Protein backbone atom coordinates (compact mmCIF):
# COMPACT_ATOMS: atom_id res chain seq x y z
CA UNK A 1 0.00 0.00 0.00
CA UNK A 2 1.22 3.51 -0.84
CA UNK A 3 2.01 5.68 2.18
CA UNK A 4 -0.52 8.51 2.49
CA UNK A 5 0.63 12.07 1.84
CA UNK A 6 -0.15 12.67 5.51
CA UNK A 7 1.24 9.31 6.63
CA UNK A 8 4.35 10.41 8.56
CA UNK A 9 3.06 9.81 12.08
CA UNK A 10 1.01 6.74 11.29
CA UNK A 11 2.14 3.20 12.06
CA UNK A 12 -0.84 1.39 10.59
CA UNK A 13 -2.71 1.95 7.37
CA UNK A 14 -6.43 2.67 7.44
CA UNK A 15 -8.85 -0.19 7.03
CA UNK A 16 -10.55 -0.73 3.72
CA UNK A 17 -13.89 0.22 5.26
CA UNK A 18 -12.53 3.54 6.53
CA UNK A 19 -10.85 4.26 3.24
CA UNK A 20 -14.07 3.64 1.35
CA UNK A 21 -16.15 5.60 3.80
CA UNK A 22 -13.95 8.68 3.91
CA UNK A 23 -13.00 9.00 0.24
CA UNK A 24 -14.42 11.83 -1.84
CA UNK A 25 -12.58 11.21 -5.09
CA UNK A 26 -15.62 9.44 -6.55
CA UNK A 27 -17.34 12.83 -6.82
CA UNK A 28 -14.88 15.63 -6.06
CA UNK A 29 -12.90 14.80 -9.18
CA UNK A 30 -15.40 17.19 -10.74
CA UNK A 31 -13.23 19.93 -9.24
CA UNK A 32 -10.10 18.91 -11.16
CA UNK A 33 -9.99 21.91 -13.51
CA UNK A 34 -10.30 24.36 -10.67
CA UNK A 35 -7.86 22.44 -8.50
CA UNK A 36 -5.27 22.67 -11.25
CA UNK A 37 -5.98 26.37 -11.80
CA UNK A 38 -5.55 27.01 -8.09
CA UNK A 39 -2.33 25.03 -7.93
CA UNK A 40 -0.87 26.89 -10.88
CA UNK A 41 -1.65 30.26 -9.31
CA UNK A 42 -0.20 29.05 -6.02
CA UNK A 43 3.03 27.74 -7.62
CA UNK A 44 3.53 30.97 -9.56
CA UNK A 45 3.09 32.97 -6.37
CA UNK A 46 5.53 30.73 -4.44
CA UNK A 47 8.14 31.32 -7.16
CA UNK A 48 7.57 35.05 -7.28
CA UNK A 49 8.00 35.20 -3.51
CA UNK A 50 11.22 33.19 -3.71
CA UNK A 51 9.72 30.22 -1.84
CA UNK A 52 10.43 27.86 -4.74
CA UNK A 53 12.75 28.23 -7.70
CA UNK A 54 11.60 29.20 -11.17
CA UNK A 55 12.66 25.85 -12.51
CA UNK A 56 10.57 24.08 -9.83
CA UNK A 57 7.65 26.27 -10.78
CA UNK A 58 8.08 25.46 -14.46
CA UNK A 59 8.13 21.73 -13.86
CA UNK A 60 5.05 22.04 -11.65
CA UNK A 61 3.17 23.97 -14.32
CA UNK A 62 4.22 21.51 -17.00
CA UNK A 63 3.27 18.55 -14.84
CA UNK A 64 -0.13 20.03 -14.06
CA UNK A 65 -0.77 20.61 -17.76
CA UNK A 66 0.12 16.99 -18.43
CA UNK A 67 -2.29 15.85 -15.70
CA UNK A 68 -5.06 18.00 -17.13
CA UNK A 69 -4.48 16.46 -20.56
CA UNK A 70 -4.59 12.96 -19.12
CA UNK A 71 -7.81 13.69 -17.24
CA UNK A 72 -9.47 15.15 -20.29
CA UNK A 73 -8.37 12.23 -22.43
CA UNK A 74 -9.86 9.87 -19.87
CA UNK A 75 -6.43 8.41 -19.20
CA UNK A 76 -5.89 9.62 -15.65
CA UNK A 77 -6.08 6.93 -12.97
CA UNK A 78 -8.24 8.23 -10.13
CA UNK A 79 -7.25 6.32 -7.01
CA UNK A 80 -9.48 5.81 -4.00
CA UNK A 81 -6.45 5.25 -1.79
CA UNK A 82 -5.43 8.81 -2.65
CA UNK A 83 -8.66 9.97 -1.05
CA UNK A 84 -9.65 13.16 -2.84
CA UNK A 85 -9.02 15.26 -5.92
CA UNK A 86 -6.30 17.32 -4.22
CA UNK A 87 -4.16 14.37 -3.16
CA UNK A 88 -4.79 12.50 -6.41
CA UNK A 89 -3.42 15.39 -8.40
CA UNK A 90 -0.55 16.15 -6.03
CA UNK A 91 0.54 12.51 -5.87
CA UNK A 92 0.25 12.13 -9.64
CA UNK A 93 2.36 15.26 -10.02
CA UNK A 94 5.03 13.65 -7.89
CA UNK A 95 4.84 10.52 -10.04
CA UNK A 96 5.40 12.65 -13.14
CA UNK A 97 7.91 15.34 -12.11
CA UNK A 98 9.38 14.00 -8.86
CA UNK A 99 10.96 16.26 -6.20
CA UNK A 100 9.64 19.71 -7.27
CA UNK A 101 6.07 18.44 -6.79
CA UNK A 102 6.75 18.07 -3.09
CA UNK A 103 7.15 21.85 -2.80
CA UNK A 104 3.71 22.68 -4.18
CA UNK A 105 1.93 22.27 -0.86
CA UNK A 106 4.14 24.93 0.81
CA UNK A 107 1.93 27.41 2.68
CA UNK A 108 -1.22 25.59 1.67
CA UNK A 109 -3.62 23.16 3.31
CA UNK A 110 -6.34 21.12 1.72
CA UNK A 111 -8.69 23.24 3.79
CA UNK A 112 -8.01 26.44 1.87
CA UNK A 113 -7.37 24.48 -1.30
CA UNK A 114 -10.74 22.77 -1.37
CA UNK A 115 -12.55 26.04 -0.75
CA UNK A 116 -10.64 27.78 -3.49
CA UNK A 117 -11.59 24.99 -5.89
CA UNK A 118 -15.18 24.96 -4.70
CA UNK A 119 -15.68 28.70 -4.97
CA UNK A 120 -14.23 28.68 -8.47
CA UNK A 121 -16.51 25.78 -9.40
CA UNK A 122 -19.59 27.50 -7.97
CA UNK A 123 -18.68 30.73 -9.75
CA UNK A 124 -18.65 28.90 -13.11
CA UNK A 125 -21.85 27.06 -12.19
CA UNK A 126 -23.59 30.38 -11.52
CA UNK A 127 -22.55 31.63 -14.96
CA UNK A 128 -23.92 28.45 -16.54
CA UNK A 129 -27.24 28.72 -14.71
CA UNK A 130 -27.63 32.39 -15.61
CA UNK A 131 -27.18 31.47 -19.27
CA UNK A 132 -29.84 28.77 -18.95
CA UNK A 133 -32.19 31.26 -17.30
CA UNK A 134 -31.73 33.58 -20.24
CA UNK A 135 -32.51 30.78 -22.69
CA UNK A 136 -35.80 30.12 -20.91
CA UNK A 137 -36.61 33.83 -20.86
CA UNK A 138 -36.00 33.96 -24.62
CA UNK A 139 -38.27 30.95 -25.17
CA UNK A 140 -41.05 32.57 -23.10
CA UNK A 141 -40.73 35.90 -24.88
CA UNK A 142 -40.82 34.15 -28.26
CA UNK A 143 -43.92 32.28 -27.19
CA UNK A 144 -45.46 35.63 -26.24
CA UNK A 145 -44.53 37.12 -29.62
CA UNK A 146 -46.29 34.23 -31.36
CA UNK A 147 -49.51 34.85 -29.47
CA UNK A 148 -50.14 38.54 -29.80
CA UNK A 149 -53.58 39.70 -28.70
CA UNK A 150 -54.64 36.38 -27.20
CA UNK A 151 -56.79 36.95 -24.13
CA UNK A 152 -56.90 34.27 -21.46
CA UNK A 153 -58.73 34.11 -18.15
CA UNK A 154 -56.62 35.32 -15.26
CA UNK A 155 -57.16 33.35 -12.07
CA UNK A 156 -57.06 33.95 -8.36
CA UNK A 157 -57.82 31.02 -6.06
CA UNK A 158 -57.82 29.09 -9.36
CA UNK A 159 -61.22 30.71 -9.97
CA UNK A 160 -61.76 32.96 -12.96
CA UNK A 161 -60.88 36.52 -12.00
CA UNK A 162 -60.20 39.04 -14.76
CA UNK A 163 -59.18 38.78 -18.41
CA UNK A 164 -55.47 39.14 -19.10
CA UNK A 165 -53.32 39.07 -22.18
CA UNK A 166 -51.44 35.80 -22.48
CA UNK A 167 -48.34 37.87 -23.22
CA UNK A 168 -48.72 39.60 -19.86
CA UNK A 169 -48.91 36.28 -18.10
CA UNK A 170 -45.86 34.84 -19.85
CA UNK A 171 -43.89 37.99 -19.05
CA UNK A 172 -44.71 37.48 -15.37
CA UNK A 173 -42.51 34.38 -15.49
CA UNK A 174 -39.83 36.30 -17.37
CA UNK A 175 -39.78 38.86 -14.53
CA UNK A 176 -39.43 36.13 -11.89
CA UNK A 177 -36.56 34.60 -13.79
CA UNK A 178 -34.86 37.97 -14.04
CA UNK A 179 -34.87 38.28 -10.25
CA UNK A 180 -33.61 34.70 -10.04
CA UNK A 181 -30.64 35.62 -12.20
CA UNK A 182 -30.12 38.75 -10.09
CA UNK A 183 -30.02 36.70 -6.90
CA UNK A 184 -27.35 34.47 -8.41
CA UNK A 185 -25.32 37.50 -9.49
CA UNK A 186 -25.57 39.01 -6.01
CA UNK A 187 -24.44 35.72 -4.54
CA UNK A 188 -21.55 35.58 -7.01
CA UNK A 189 -20.33 38.99 -5.87
CA UNK A 190 -20.22 37.89 -2.22
CA UNK A 191 -18.75 34.51 -3.17
CA UNK A 192 -15.91 35.92 -5.19
CA UNK A 193 -13.27 36.25 -2.45
CA UNK A 194 -10.26 34.00 -2.26
CA UNK A 195 -9.58 31.61 0.64
CA UNK A 196 -6.18 30.49 -0.70
CA UNK A 197 -3.39 31.19 1.77
CA UNK A 198 -5.63 30.78 4.81
CA UNK A 199 -3.83 27.41 5.05
CA UNK A 200 -5.23 25.07 7.71
CA UNK A 201 -6.94 27.89 9.60
CA UNK A 202 -4.36 30.29 10.98
CA UNK A 203 -2.52 31.53 7.90
CA UNK A 204 1.25 31.13 7.67
CA UNK A 205 4.53 32.74 8.68
CA UNK A 206 5.93 32.21 5.18
CA UNK A 207 6.07 35.33 3.01
CA UNK A 208 3.21 34.48 0.65
CA UNK A 209 1.26 37.02 -1.41
CA UNK A 210 -2.42 36.28 -1.15
CA UNK A 211 -3.33 39.28 -3.27
CA UNK A 212 -1.38 37.83 -6.15
CA UNK A 213 -3.16 34.46 -6.11
CA UNK A 214 -6.54 36.14 -5.62
CA UNK A 215 -5.94 38.30 -8.65
CA UNK A 216 -4.61 35.47 -10.80
CA UNK A 217 -7.79 33.51 -10.10
CA UNK A 218 -9.97 36.55 -10.81
CA UNK A 219 -11.24 36.89 -7.28
CA UNK A 220 -12.05 40.39 -6.04
CA UNK A 221 -9.63 40.07 -3.11
CA UNK A 222 -8.33 37.50 -0.61
CA UNK A 223 -10.71 36.70 2.27
CA UNK A 224 -9.82 38.84 5.27
CA UNK A 225 -10.00 36.26 8.03
CA UNK A 226 -8.21 32.92 7.62
CA UNK A 227 -10.44 31.14 10.14
CA UNK A 228 -13.56 32.36 8.38
CA UNK A 229 -12.03 31.42 5.04
CA UNK A 230 -11.82 27.71 5.86
CA UNK A 231 -15.05 27.57 7.88
CA UNK A 232 -17.48 29.49 5.75
CA UNK A 233 -20.04 27.66 3.71
CA UNK A 234 -22.57 30.45 3.56
CA UNK A 235 -21.51 31.19 0.01
CA UNK A 236 -22.87 27.82 -1.03
CA UNK A 237 -25.91 28.03 1.26
CA UNK A 238 -26.77 31.27 -0.46
CA UNK A 239 -26.20 29.68 -3.86
CA UNK A 240 -28.43 26.71 -3.09
CA UNK A 241 -31.06 29.06 -1.64
CA UNK A 242 -31.10 31.00 -4.90
CA UNK A 243 -31.39 27.69 -6.76
CA UNK A 244 -34.29 26.66 -4.54
CA UNK A 245 -36.17 29.82 -5.40
CA UNK A 246 -35.58 29.15 -9.11
CA UNK A 247 -36.83 25.60 -8.56
CA UNK A 248 -40.01 26.90 -6.96
CA UNK A 249 -40.65 29.29 -9.82
CA UNK A 250 -40.16 26.49 -12.33
CA UNK A 251 -42.35 24.17 -10.31
CA UNK A 252 -45.17 26.70 -10.42
CA UNK A 253 -44.68 27.09 -14.16
CA UNK A 254 -44.74 23.30 -14.47
CA UNK A 255 -47.97 23.06 -12.51
CA UNK A 256 -49.58 25.75 -14.64
CA UNK A 257 -48.66 24.04 -17.89
CA UNK A 258 -49.73 20.64 -16.63
CA UNK A 259 -53.12 22.17 -15.80
CA UNK A 260 -53.35 23.96 -19.13
CA UNK A 261 -52.59 20.74 -20.99
CA UNK A 262 -55.44 18.91 -19.27
CA UNK A 263 -58.73 18.16 -21.02
CA UNK A 264 -60.43 20.34 -18.43
CA UNK A 265 -58.45 23.48 -19.33
CA UNK A 266 -57.38 22.54 -22.82
CA UNK A 267 -55.44 25.79 -23.26
CA UNK A 268 -52.30 24.24 -24.73
CA UNK A 269 -51.30 21.28 -26.81
CA UNK A 270 -47.72 20.19 -26.23
CA UNK A 271 -46.16 18.62 -29.31
CA UNK A 272 -45.47 14.89 -29.32
CA UNK A 273 -41.76 15.64 -29.02
CA UNK A 274 -42.22 16.87 -25.45
CA UNK A 275 -44.86 14.37 -24.35
CA UNK A 276 -44.80 10.77 -23.23
CA UNK A 277 -47.34 7.98 -23.29
CA UNK A 278 -48.76 5.33 -21.02
CA UNK A 279 -47.72 1.69 -21.02
CA UNK A 280 -51.34 0.60 -20.56
CA UNK A 281 -53.67 3.36 -21.77
CA UNK A 282 -53.18 3.69 -25.51
CA UNK A 283 -54.79 7.12 -25.76
CA UNK A 284 -52.59 8.87 -23.20
CA UNK A 285 -50.27 11.76 -23.97
CA UNK A 286 -48.80 13.20 -20.82
CA UNK A 287 -46.84 16.40 -20.14
CA UNK A 288 -44.19 14.45 -18.19
CA UNK A 289 -41.32 16.90 -18.66
CA UNK A 290 -43.16 19.63 -16.80
CA UNK A 291 -44.36 17.20 -14.15
CA UNK A 292 -40.75 16.28 -13.58
CA UNK A 293 -39.76 19.93 -13.46
CA UNK A 294 -42.30 20.23 -10.64
CA UNK A 295 -41.02 17.01 -9.07
CA UNK A 296 -37.33 17.77 -9.28
CA UNK A 297 -37.81 21.01 -7.38
CA UNK A 298 -38.02 18.69 -4.36
CA UNK A 299 -34.42 17.60 -4.89
CA UNK A 300 -33.16 21.15 -5.14
CA UNK A 301 -34.87 22.07 -1.88
CA UNK A 302 -33.57 18.84 -0.35
CA UNK A 303 -30.03 19.74 -1.38
CA UNK A 304 -30.33 23.08 0.41
CA UNK A 305 -31.78 21.45 3.51
CA UNK A 306 -28.96 18.89 3.50
CA UNK A 307 -26.40 21.65 3.50
CA UNK A 308 -28.14 23.74 6.13
CA UNK A 309 -28.38 20.72 8.38
CA UNK A 310 -24.75 19.84 7.67
CA UNK A 311 -23.51 23.21 8.87
CA UNK A 312 -25.74 23.45 11.91
CA UNK A 313 -23.74 22.83 15.05
CA UNK A 314 -20.24 22.82 13.52
CA UNK A 315 -17.63 24.66 15.55
CA UNK A 316 -14.93 26.69 13.82
CA UNK A 317 -12.91 25.95 11.76
CA UNK A 318 -12.68 23.08 9.23
CA UNK A 319 -14.48 19.85 10.11
CA UNK A 320 -14.50 16.79 7.93
CA UNK A 321 -18.30 16.91 7.89
CA UNK A 322 -17.86 19.71 5.40
CA UNK A 323 -16.70 17.28 2.74
CA UNK A 324 -20.41 16.46 2.48
CA UNK A 325 -21.05 19.89 0.98
CA UNK A 326 -20.16 18.85 -2.55
CA UNK A 327 -22.65 16.23 -3.64
CA UNK A 328 -25.76 18.28 -2.78
CA UNK A 329 -24.23 21.27 -4.56
CA UNK A 330 -23.38 19.29 -7.68
CA UNK A 331 -26.87 17.77 -7.62
CA UNK A 332 -28.55 21.13 -7.17
CA UNK A 333 -26.69 22.65 -10.12
CA UNK A 334 -27.23 19.69 -12.43
CA UNK A 335 -30.93 19.54 -11.54
CA UNK A 336 -31.55 23.26 -11.96
CA UNK A 337 -29.82 23.37 -15.33
CA UNK A 338 -31.90 20.39 -16.49
CA UNK A 339 -35.12 22.00 -15.26
CA UNK A 340 -34.35 25.26 -17.04
CA UNK A 341 -33.35 23.58 -20.27
CA UNK A 342 -36.38 21.31 -20.44
CA UNK A 343 -38.76 24.16 -19.57
CA UNK A 344 -37.32 26.17 -22.47
CA UNK A 345 -37.73 23.19 -24.75
CA UNK A 346 -41.33 22.74 -23.62
CA UNK A 347 -42.05 26.43 -24.24
CA UNK A 348 -40.76 26.02 -27.79
CA UNK A 349 -43.08 23.09 -28.35
CA UNK A 350 -46.53 24.13 -27.22
CA UNK A 351 -49.38 25.67 -29.17
CA UNK A 352 -52.21 27.62 -27.64
CA UNK A 353 -55.66 26.38 -28.59
CA UNK A 354 -56.98 29.79 -29.55
CA UNK A 355 -60.49 28.71 -30.52
CA UNK A 356 -61.01 26.71 -27.39
CA UNK A 357 -59.74 29.50 -25.16
CA UNK A 358 -61.99 32.02 -26.92
CA UNK A 359 -65.01 29.79 -26.56
CA UNK A 360 -64.46 29.47 -22.84
CA UNK A 361 -63.81 33.15 -22.19
CA UNK A 362 -67.37 34.31 -21.60
CA UNK A 363 -67.68 32.09 -18.54
CA UNK A 364 -66.86 33.43 -15.10
CA UNK A 365 -67.83 37.14 -15.37
CA UNK A 366 -64.26 38.24 -16.07
CA UNK A 367 -65.59 41.74 -16.87
CA UNK A 368 -67.32 42.29 -13.51
CA UNK A 369 -64.50 44.36 -11.98
CA UNK A 370 -64.30 46.55 -15.08
CA UNK A 371 -68.03 47.14 -14.72
CA UNK A 372 -67.56 48.15 -11.09
CA UNK A 373 -64.90 50.67 -12.19
CA UNK A 374 -67.32 52.05 -14.82
CA UNK A 375 -69.90 53.21 -12.33
CA UNK A 376 -67.68 55.93 -10.80
CA UNK A 377 -69.58 55.99 -7.57
CA UNK A 378 -67.99 55.00 -4.23
CA UNK A 379 -66.35 51.66 -4.99
CA UNK A 380 -67.98 49.73 -2.17
CA UNK A 381 -71.37 50.73 -3.51
CA UNK A 382 -70.55 49.84 -7.10
CA UNK A 383 -69.06 46.50 -5.92
CA UNK A 384 -72.39 45.75 -4.31
CA UNK A 385 -74.41 46.76 -7.38
CA UNK A 386 -72.30 44.68 -9.75
CA UNK A 387 -72.53 41.80 -7.29
CA UNK A 388 -76.29 42.00 -7.62
CA UNK A 389 -75.99 42.19 -11.41
CA UNK A 390 -73.88 39.01 -11.35
CA UNK A 391 -76.46 37.32 -9.13
CA UNK A 392 -79.14 38.28 -11.64
CA UNK A 393 -77.02 36.81 -14.47
CA UNK A 394 -76.49 33.62 -12.50
CA UNK A 395 -80.25 33.20 -12.07
CA UNK A 396 -80.89 33.99 -15.75
CA UNK A 397 -77.91 31.92 -16.88
CA UNK A 398 -76.56 34.77 -18.98
CA UNK A 399 -73.57 37.11 -19.15
CA UNK A 400 -73.37 40.68 -17.92
CA UNK A 401 -73.52 42.05 -21.47
CA UNK A 402 -76.82 40.19 -22.01
CA UNK A 403 -78.61 42.27 -19.35
CA UNK A 404 -80.82 45.01 -20.77
CA UNK A 405 -80.24 48.62 -19.79
CA UNK A 406 -83.56 48.55 -17.92
CA UNK A 407 -82.46 45.54 -15.91
CA UNK A 408 -79.25 47.30 -15.00
CA UNK A 409 -81.03 50.54 -14.18
CA UNK A 410 -83.34 48.65 -11.89
CA UNK A 411 -80.20 47.97 -9.82
CA UNK A 412 -78.95 51.57 -10.05
CA UNK A 413 -79.95 54.50 -12.26
CA UNK A 414 -76.28 55.43 -12.95
CA UNK A 415 -76.05 52.84 -15.74
CA UNK A 416 -76.12 54.33 -19.23
CA UNK A 417 -75.88 52.80 -22.66
CA UNK A 418 -72.12 53.34 -22.86
CA UNK A 419 -71.90 50.54 -20.25
CA UNK A 420 -71.79 48.05 -23.11
CA UNK A 421 -68.36 49.45 -24.06
CA UNK A 422 -67.10 48.02 -20.79
CA UNK A 423 -68.60 44.58 -21.09
CA UNK A 424 -67.18 41.46 -22.67
CA UNK A 425 -63.53 40.48 -22.27
CA UNK A 426 -62.30 42.38 -25.32
CA UNK A 427 -63.81 45.60 -24.02
CA UNK A 428 -62.65 44.91 -20.51
CA UNK A 429 -59.04 44.39 -21.62
CA UNK A 430 -59.12 47.71 -23.49
CA UNK A 431 -59.91 49.56 -20.28
CA UNK A 432 -56.69 48.62 -18.50
CA UNK A 433 -54.17 51.43 -18.57
CA UNK A 434 -52.27 51.55 -15.27
CA UNK A 435 -48.51 51.01 -15.26
CA UNK A 436 -47.76 47.29 -15.21
CA UNK A 437 -51.33 46.37 -16.14
CA UNK A 438 -52.62 43.96 -18.74
CA UNK A 439 -53.58 46.84 -21.08
CA UNK A 440 -52.21 46.08 -24.51
CA UNK A 441 -50.14 49.27 -24.84
CA UNK A 442 -48.47 48.53 -21.55
CA UNK A 443 -47.84 44.85 -22.35
CA UNK A 444 -46.51 45.65 -25.81
CA UNK A 445 -44.07 48.13 -24.35
CA UNK A 446 -42.83 45.56 -21.85
CA UNK A 447 -42.55 42.93 -24.53
CA UNK A 448 -40.43 45.24 -26.67
CA UNK A 449 -38.14 46.02 -23.80
CA UNK A 450 -37.61 42.29 -23.15
CA UNK A 451 -36.99 41.65 -26.84
CA UNK A 452 -34.29 44.34 -26.77
CA UNK A 453 -32.82 43.27 -23.44
CA UNK A 454 -32.57 39.61 -24.43
CA UNK A 455 -31.30 40.45 -27.91
CA UNK A 456 -34.11 38.62 -29.71
CA UNK A 457 -34.40 39.45 -33.40
N1 LIG B 1 -11.81 16.23 0.74
C1 LIG B 1 -11.83 17.23 1.76
C2 LIG B 1 -13.10 18.05 1.71
O1 LIG B 1 -13.76 18.02 0.73
C3 LIG B 1 -10.66 18.14 1.58
C4 LIG B 1 -10.24 18.77 2.85
C5 LIG B 1 -9.68 17.76 3.76
N2 LIG B 1 -9.03 18.36 4.88
C6 LIG B 1 -8.69 17.64 5.93
N3 LIG B 1 -8.09 18.27 6.88
N4 LIG B 1 -8.94 16.37 6.03
O2 LIG B 1 -13.46 18.70 2.64
Summarize the structure.
This protein has helices spanning 16-22, 25-28, 32-48, 54-72, 85-97, 110-146, 166-191, 210-216, 226-231, 234-260, 288-311, 326-347, 354-360, 368-374, 379-396, 405-411, 425-430, 440-453; strands at 151-156, 159-165, 193-194, 221-222, 268-270, 350-352. It is mostly helical. The strands form three sheets. It has a two-stranded antiparallel ribbon with strand order 1-2. A two-stranded parallel sheet has the order 3-4.
Describe this structure in words.
This is Argininosuccinate lyase. This protein has 457 residues and is mainly alpha-helical. 59% of the residues lie in helices and 5% in strands. It contains 18 helices and 6 strands. The structure holds arginine.
SSE layout and pairing:
Layout: H1 16-22, H2 25-28, H3 32-48, H4 54-72, H5 85-97, H6 110-146, E1 151-156, E2 159-165, H7 166-191, E3 193-194, H8 210-216, E4 221-222, H9 226-231, H10 234-260, E5 268-270, H11 288-311, H12 326-347, E6 350-352, H13 354-360, H14 368-374, H15 379-396, H16 405-411, H17 425-430, H18 440-453
Parallel strand pairs: 3-4
Antiparallel strand pairs: 1-2, 5-6
The structure holds arginine (ARG).
Keywords: Lyase
Protein name: Argininosuccinate lyase
Which terms summarize this structure?
binds arginine, 59% helix, two-stranded antiparallel sheet, single chain, 457 residues, 6 strands, two-stranded parallel ribbon, mainly alpha
Amino acid sequence: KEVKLWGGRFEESVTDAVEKFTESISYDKALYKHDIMGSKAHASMLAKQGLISDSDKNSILRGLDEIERQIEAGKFMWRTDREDVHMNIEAALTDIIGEPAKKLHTARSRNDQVLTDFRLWCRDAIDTIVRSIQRLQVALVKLALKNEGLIVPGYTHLQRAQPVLLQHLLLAYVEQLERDAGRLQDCRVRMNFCPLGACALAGTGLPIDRFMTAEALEFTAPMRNSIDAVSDRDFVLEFLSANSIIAIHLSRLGEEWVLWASEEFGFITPSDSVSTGSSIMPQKKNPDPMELVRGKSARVIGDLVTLLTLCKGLPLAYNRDLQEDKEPTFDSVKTIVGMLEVSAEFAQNITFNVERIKKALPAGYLDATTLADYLQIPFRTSHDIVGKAVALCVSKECQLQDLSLDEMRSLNPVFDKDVYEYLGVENAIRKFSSFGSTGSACVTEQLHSWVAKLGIN
